[in-house]
Each structure stands twice: as C-alpha cells, then as structure tokens.
Amino acid sequence: MDEIRINKYIALCGICSRREADGLIENGRVTINGQKAELGSKVKEGDTVLLDQKEVKPEEKKVVAYYKPVGVTCTEADVHANVTLSEAFHYPTRLTYAGRLDEDSEGLLIMTNDGDLIHVMMCGSNNHEKEYLVEVDKDIDPQIFDRMRKGIFLFDLDVETKPCKVESVNSNTFKITLTQGLNRQIRRMCFECGLDVVSLKRIRVCNILLGDLKPNEYREIEGEELKQLYDSVFKSESE
C-alpha cells in the first residue's frame, strides 16, 4: 500500500466517508501506531490504525443494490425512527448507504463499504442521475411537466431546482430524473404545483436499475455493471 492520508485510509475500511473521517480524527478517536492522528496524517504499509481503540483495516470493496421499503429511515441509530436501515438491511459485511431516501419513499439504495464511492455519490454537485416513479393525488396538467423541466423555485428552501427530465406515465403518474438531491425535492416540487405525492419510488441511480427487486431484497453489483458505475461517478467528479 502506498502512503495515503488517514481520512482516505478510514474510508477504505468502509467505516465512513473521508469527510466524516475528518470529524473522527478531530475528535481524537483515531490513532496511528499509538499516536493520536491529526488531519493530514499519513498511513503506510505496516502501520496500526485504531478507531476508538479498535484496529481497523481496509476491506474488500462491496457494492449492493437494495430495495428500501417505505417506513425505513436512512440512519443507523435514531430513537425517533420506527425502523432504521441497520435494522432492515442485513449483509455479511457492514455497508453504508451512498445516497439517502426519506422514510416515506421506497426504492433503490446503493449500499457499499467503499468510502470514496460514498463520498462522491453523496456530493450533490456531481450531477449523478437518479430516476423516480411518482404517483400524485390528481390528474396532472401537462404544463406542470414543463415547469418541472425548467426548474421550480422552492420558497421554503429559497432555491430553484435544476432543469430535469420528466416523462408522463399516465394521468396521475410520471417519471422524473434529477441531478441534484435537495431534501424531499420531488415532494416539494409537487407541492409548489398543487400536487400531493401518493407514492414515490427510486428506480435508477446512474446505470444501476432497481429492476425486479422487491422490498427488502438486494443484489450484488459486479462485473461490467460495477465498472460502468465507477466510470460514471468518478468521471463526473473530475469534470
């Protein structure tokens, strides 16, 4: 292993993103060969890294497509959550979500122990496509789709959404493809258009499809599909 920064090393261990690792380091929870790590400290082959006095080592990278059911909260521990993601999702290796879905929504989550992948996919400026199937409470005026495609000003967030792709499915259902991840964005966009969301399902992230997965099922992403995912997300980061 070449000498690398401590935050990247922790990310490679599948514990968290590099940004989150910086917080662990700043809080004095990380040591290298018995010495408290600092931001910018580096790790080389043979070094011993402890987090909360337990040794951590890089794991084999795993990437999984998981169908998050409605009612599951994207958190590992929350006293206010009915069901946490760690309670619903079970896998032999500890994996973390790379992109959230709110409790009332369902569909595709990318789960991984690759901290670099988590970091890139959680960064809202990287323009990764996420496609959703949305059902609302009434028939949709086609002019609403035009508003959504151009961008809608969300008054409660004081921000205008980026242009997006919208495709009608039937009178009260549509597909929408976003390249940003504002909090409850689709629900807010619908609200500004006088619509209430009945159901919201994420069906694609980049090239990864939800496909035939059913709630609480998962499949490992491997081979060419995995290569395409890495190529797309890390290419967009460098652009």
* C-alpha Rg (nearest Å): 20 Å
Q: Helix/strand-derived class?
A: alpha+beta
The number of helical elements comes to 7
Mean pLDDT: 91
User: What count of structural domains?
Assistant: 3
H and E order: EHHEEEEEEEEHEEHEHEEEEHEEEH
Strand content: 25-35%
Helix content: 25-40%
CATH superfamily membership of the largest domain: Pseudouridine synthase I, catalytic domain, N-terminal subdomain
Q: Please name the CATH architecture of the largest domain.
A: 2-Layer Sandwich
Q: What gross morphology would you assign?
A: elongated
Please report the total strand number as a whole number.
19
Identify low-pLDDT runs.
Answer: none
Per the CATH scheme, the topology name of the largest domain is: Alpha-Beta Plaits
Taking the alpha carbons of the first and last residues, their distance comes to 27 Å
CATH uppermost class of the largest domain: Alpha Beta
Q: Report on the biggest sheet.
A: 9 strands, mixed
Question: Can you walk me through this structure?
Answer:
It is a single chain. With 239 residues, this protein is an alpha+beta fold. The chain has 3 domains: 52 residues, Structural Genomics Hypothetical 15.5 Kd Protein In mrcA-pckA Intergenic Region, Chain A (Roll), CATH 3.10.290.10; 86 residues, 2-Layer Sandwich (Alpha-Beta Plaits); 77 residues, Alpha-L RNA-binding motif (Alpha-Beta Plaits). Strands 7, 10, 11, 12, 15, 16, 17, 18 and 19 form a 9-stranded mixed beta sheet that branches. β17 and β18 form a beta hairpin. α1 crosses α2.
